[in-house]
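Hello,

Our lab assistant flagged a job as stuck in the queue for most of the afternoon. It eventually completed. Since we weren't sure the result was trustworthy after the delay, we are filing this so someone can double-check. Below is the sequence as submitted and the structure that was eventually returned. Let us know if re-running is recommended.
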Amino acid sequence: MLCWNLKNPNSTPIGEENPASEQEAILQAILKNSSDGIFIVELRWEEFWFVCANQTYLLMHAIADTDVTNKPISECLPSDISQIIQQNLTHCLQNQQSRTYQQPIETEIGSQLAIVTLSPIHINGKITQILGIAQDITEKQRNRAVAQLLQTITLGVAEAQDFDSALSIALQKICQVTGWNYAEAWVPSSDPGFIECTPACYSTSGSLDSFRNIRKQQKFSANSNLGEIWSAQPLKWMPSGLPQPIDSLLDTKIAAEADFQAGLSIPILASGKLIAVLVFFMFEPRLENKQISLVSAVGVQLGAVIHHKKYRNIFENAVAGIYQTSIQGRYHTANPMLARIYGYSSPDEMMVNLTDIGKQLYVKPNRRDEFQRLLQKQDVIYGFESEVYRKDGSTIWISESARAIRNDQGQLIGYEGTVEDITKRKEAEVELHNREALLQGVATAMHHLLTDSDHQGAIIKALASLGVVIGVDRVYIYETHPHPETGLSALSLRFEWVTNSIQPSINPANRQNLTPCSFGLTNWPSILEATHAITDFIGSLPQEERELLEREGLLSRLIVPIRVEGQLWGYLGFDDGSKLRRRWSEGQISMLMAIGESIGGALQRQKMEEMIRHEALHDRLTGLPNRTLLAEKLNMALHNARRRESMFALMFLDLDHFKIINDTLGHAVGDRLLQAVVKRLSHCLREGDTIARWGGDEFILLLPHIFRPKDAAAIAQRILESLQEKFDLDGHNVAIGSSIGIALYPSDDRDSDSLMKKADAALYRAKQEGRNNFQFWNSSV
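-- returned structure --
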């Protein structure tokens, strides 16, 4: 597994002595610019150490100036956060499966909340590292808390008989959610310009009666600063040394005598007029942004709730759907937001059309039954999530909080509650899961491409990894090349992975030498040359071409370029025939573009290795196998002949009088003569025969497919006749002959060294016999 220092993208990959190719830098850039915190750890000496972490993760923990690479977690993070992370990493490692948990984080701007997903990285069936993705959900949680608190207050205040009772309910609900120990409400008094304490009050301690009595006797000016924050200790996110007004509702001196350490006052307005001021105190100086922002957000809406006796205004303008239903599944009341959530123009239209909630609303059968069972059992439920139908037949996800309505005899007569559209949250969860899976797949694919010496096999494994995690039907690679007949640009399928339900198309001829028009995409070369991906183009094709693709079951396709040595080599394609047209996200496209570049790098390395191997095993002048490659082929011929109990011939060939020609006409002519001789020799041999240059003007011929000695004699005679014809070399008519010695397996010997010696001895005999002839080895030689 290769990982990079995500904080410093120019650093060397861990596990690789030299920097990765520039294609790997693309993946580094993707991780560096991610809006989520990403880190990778591994277990060393019974403790988890950072392998790498991106800038977002470091900023999230206020350690942006720290290099965490190759350091234990306990040295880089606060002890409480380190302990939680290590506990969850241990659980992930022991259970060998992904784990998601919430992580509170204290920063200079207050408390934050992140959701962290840990995913083990398997290599050869063993977990080597763990990938973590941390997503900041602080704002989402705050918005949800505001919505839930408003819903709770709305339902509670609706039961209040008078103004003071409504205030008391509001104070109680706020304190229970935000953690205040004491709360009271002040309203304009009969004395103009002043406010006075109301009977509405909430306390978590019975020892505050004396403090309460003092507060009842106080009177403050309505011109005071009615919205204030006080803490006995300075808060990092608040300007220090703020002057306290002389006439302060918080009255810090009296509050401190009652052992309070922090306070907050929030004015409640309705139609621009002061309705009340809510005052809160707590025993600990642990004010947090979320406490203040939550109460402030509630205060904005609370004026309308309290001002209207029946609170109709908040009902009509609530950010969540509100309803009352019968046990049988009909709506008694519903607010406009609920109608909008379900796609209706008004509550009346919704209630006329939705007459059986259980059968018409919920996608999952018996979901209404489960809803009713829970309310029968516990009277109140929170966060009951379901997939439901809208008016147009589309589906969304909702979260319901509801309570049972009972009459004076305790009999269940209906339900009331709130509905929140959580479709985006659900989509985000799916996106997060898909992103996690894609990162795992990309990591696996990159591992194959960067470490597997079998480049062909590595590419096939990479395609399989990507196909599974992305969930497409086909992943394939086409190479672009000149058409063998027309010379125009053509495409041929080189690699392919398909699901079990799809028939592979790698072998049929109709997938080779295709033109761009065959794909219904004539301008693809210019797009891919510009290093851009092609996606979602099927819907824009002419109807005839679109219908052709749809008949093949193809609804979505993504194409990314593959470049080798800076030139367009071909493309990587992903085909999907699922019922819904796939939407490729920018993140997916960026990662798959990086994979395309990495495949190009693997192909380039394969090309270089093949060239290096060819140069190491072939003669540079003639292109023939050299002694090293000849030894490999001779050993293979011996192995096959022993296994099949067959015959083969080994020939030594020497050019007659070559030294004279080389000395008189020069080495350049001599080199061209050797190249011309090789061409004639090649025409004399059969498929499977091998010519190797032994050195100078000496050649060795390996003939593995002969059945009797005269087969070798026929080939030798053909060679002699072929070389007797003069060679025209830049105006020089050169005549040359050859001498050939032949040894046979198994009659002459059974090992390579002995056969070579006996063929050489036979060659010497041919030269003694006057050259320009061939001789078999025999005992007299």
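-- support follow-up --
The delay was a queue issue, not a problem with the job. The result is valid. The radius of gyration is 42 Å. DSSP finds 24 helices and 28 strands in the chain.
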